Sequence to fold (342 residues):
Amino acid sequence: MSSPSEQTVLITGSTGYVGSHILKLILENGYNVRLPVRSESSADGVRTKFPQHESQLSFSIIGDITKPELFKDAFANTAKPITAVIHSAAPFVLNVKDMRKDLLDPIIGGSVAILEAVKKYGPDVKRVVNTSSFAANLDINKGARPGYTYSEADWNPMTYEEASEADAASAYCAAKGLGEKAMWDWMEAEKPSFSLVSVNPPWVFGPHVGGVRDTRKLNESSHALYSLLGAKEIPPIDFCGYVDSRTIAQAHIAALEKEEAAGQRFLVGSHFDYQSAVDALRKELPELASRLPLGTPGKGPETYELDGSKAERVLGIKYIPLNETMRDSFLQFLETDNKAAA
Fold:
């Protein structure tokens, strides 16, 4: 395999919370990057965020990632060949009305479209890394499921028809499972010259690349954390797992580079509950104690567990402890709020 400087990685979703961390690490590792973005202003935002890496960056404007033919220009005219694709573009919004239009179809359609595009326009691509989700593993109807441990062997069992009539959280989880399944089914049917790897994170917490611009406009996972400030009670459980934003970026790079990752899916995360989060925050940032719900310190709810050991073993990642993730997340929130109040 040639050195990173002789390769280009195409990354979808690079302006998002997770995508920005992936992009940052890819650039720091010396790769050239082609970024399909929705607008020139999005491209300008990336250039502003990574001025020291501008020579490694190139862009393509693409309006709809569910249509393979629109990727033609994204794969064309790069100084170095595109040898890998990281597909991290997918909506993670829960305030939606039309489950099919806003969640199911974009996620499932975009998942297969990127594979079709690689087959048609990416002759040098050897690896596609898909950002899936623990939602693709989770059986949401089983609830907290104490005593059970989820692993890569688990799949979300909800069908498209069931999801289209479900609440937004259930529909999102189903869409991630259906989208990932569609990719594996496509790989089995088409048997392309490139391999697929799926990275499945639960909640992603931790710092944002370049800081938090406005705590009133946070992504879903950061909003869930920030909402602990001023809360009267510990929130009910939702995803009982998390991974740090910096760790999930490392997992994507390893999934791209490690030959032994080919054809595998990786559950990347460990246990999370909000009681443990506020307990950690009280120790790390005691000045926040009066703004956080107390709950029952040291006694979190009984829930399922996550087995993220395969990612440690094969990808070589090391999980960042919850106390560090909480500390670094809230330091950014506080910095932004303090600037706004000044």
User: Anything to note?
Assistant: The chain has a mean pLDDT of 95.
